[in-house]
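This section describes the prediction task in plain terms. A model, or a person checking by hand, is given the sequence of a single protein chain and must write out its three-dimensional structure as a string of tokens. No templates, partner chains or ligands are provided. The sample shown here is typical of the held-out split.
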Amino acid sequence: MHNLANLKQQIIYMPWKSVSHRLSHWVTYYPWRVLLLVFSVVVALSSGAMNLGFNSDSRVYFSKENPRLLAFEALEAVYNRTDSVFFVIQPPNDSIFNLSSLQAIAQLTQAAWQLPYSSRVDSIVNFQHSYSDNENIIIADLIPDPKALTETEILSIKKTALNEPLLVNRLVSVNGHVAGVNVNVHLPGKSPMESIRLAERARKLAGEIESQYPGVKIRISGIAMMSNAFVEVAMSDNLKLLPLMYSVIIGVLWLSLRSLSATFAVVLLIMLAMASALGTFGWFHGHLTPTSAVAPTIIMTVAVADCLHVLLAIRQNMEAGQEKKQAIQESLHSNFQPILLTSVSTMLGFLGMNFSEAPPFRDFGNIVATGVAAALFLTLTLLPSLITLLPIRPRLKQQRTERPMHHLAIFVIRYRKALLPINGLLAMILIGYAPDNELNDEFVNYFGKSIEFRQDTDFLSQHLGGIYTIEYSLDTQQEGGVQEPVFLRNLDRFNDWLKKQPETVHVNTVTDIFKRLNKNMHDDDPKYYALPDRRELASQYLLMYELSLPYGLDLNDQINADKSGTRVIVTLKNLSSKQMLAFESRSKAWLKTDMPETSIETGSTALMFAHVGQRNIRSMITGTLLVLVFISFILIGAFRSLSLGLISIIPNLTPSIAAFGIWALIDGRVGLSLSVVASITLGIVVDDTIHFISKYRHARLEKNYGCREAIRHAFSTVGEAIWITSAVLICGFIVLSFSPFTINSEMGLMTAITLTIALFLDLLLLPPLLMLWDGDANNRK
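The expected answer:
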């Protein structure tokens, strides 16, 4: 029976040994040929990077088939796009109603028409104010000539502006201490330089106004500026994080290997893996985004793991007295199967991000998965070939008893019965906190407080509305339906309902125009500030008003072409995704009850982000479970043991869930960034489990070691590599946590937490589990 078992294991391991034997022989005896082949493949792949583009539009986070995006684009096709650059003017004396401030607003309003891609400019200066004058209705700019204003006229303008519903909390604050100039823009979407160029011109214009009017401070927000902020954070990440990550990796490599040659080989491998991944993505004409642009940083981090396992094994073999080529070959023999398995599992984890509702996360996962595949290829070919050619010396041999891993192995074996319940209880406590997380998000908070856009947007939200909006398209399904008195009354009731909601800052609707025109037609008598009671009257008011409007300030952004429908824009306070969805649901319920015959569509950038966060979490749960199933089958097949494959799930799945328990104690809000972490980390945390179990099984089956001795063997051969590679991964994701882009920083921090827990469990929980599974350790060697 014993011989039969050995024969069975030989048959199982024969394919791996045959491949690794041929490969190790080839790379050590023909290194120059290998290098020529490798560099040819890398050049072919990386040349695709010339096709890479960059997409900074916030809508890139929504797939083309996303129902919310389709609805919003349909709404914008009827009306105008609401992408904008919003200037907030803060005068030095906390009042815009003085000659200097009004002149600054007027100059900014006029100059803003010259901004790239601008289609409309609105401010209190060019607001189309209507009033009665000797039986005539005058419709003109509220401030036609700021330079010639008297104090009396300024007071009159102030009274009008602060009592105009279409201005207050939209273009002027309630007490008049700040004002806004809104520039609607339509970016063609052909180049990321569009938003950069627009932002540069906007900032230059703001600087010119500030220099001409000392004490005036201008802040810039708006959806168009958010698109530029996406570009800036991506550039910031690449300029700051990549050099920092290189420094961390080079430092860890030097401390671990104490070899310039080995360090050089790993750094070269990382660069080639990144170039291959980005080039491959470029061959498919992919566009980088702020999320996918950090993929090189992750590839850099993940690629180091396999390199270190190979190099540390080479060093150990040389310390044991083997000649360099023999040490390289033996390292490839022992690491070939676990490296292949860990790379496949890591790739599966990142490929699981294709279940994400947000295309940038899909691209991120695909780029990193490609980089992992490239790193695997380079680790098995380029790395050993370079080490064969480059000078490398082993460190002075240390006694095994002096190694920290030897002492850790003794500790784990001695206290295995206590470690199982203690670690299990600790994990269960953390897992118990995981349900306390709230599925929530705020898209403005995707940008850290160090980002200028975030600072300006926070100021806008505090003093003059904000950029959180919901747009409603209310269609009567009949031509001229918006002029029907019944529809107008219902629309006005909806307007009143919206204004009473605690989340509402401002409501932009045509009913306020109809009321003002009706008052004007009755000699500005306040008691006639009401809706017209006949369709013919409403039609005449509307026609008169439209004919009086200057070019660029028409009502096309509020009423559709055949006047069958109208758009209502509600500006909201900064709301979380949960609050945003609750507001939408509440308003739709009102419309369904009180305006049942009206066709309703809702949309906005904020609303789309709120929905995609919820959809993404559900999709990623499905994707993560499928990835877990695939990885479990791979491990069961690789270890040829159902029970061992199932045992490995415990240290693989527990870290992600326990990390969410820690997150519940730190923050408690799970949004778009954290919804993909489980899939990412699942593929990575499996790596250490595979290496440890592989070495344990190797000792038990091929060396015929007892249970305790096999644990010591696993610790001595792979323990050091496990904690060093984990340290590199943790440091890499901690570096990512310093990104000013919260989607990246939260993902980095959460992944680092997960990997830390995984390291703890792989070294302190997995060995006792293996000993429990393998029988009573007291009766083993």
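For orientation: The chain has three domains: 24-49+228-395+404-436+609-779, 84-221, 456-603.
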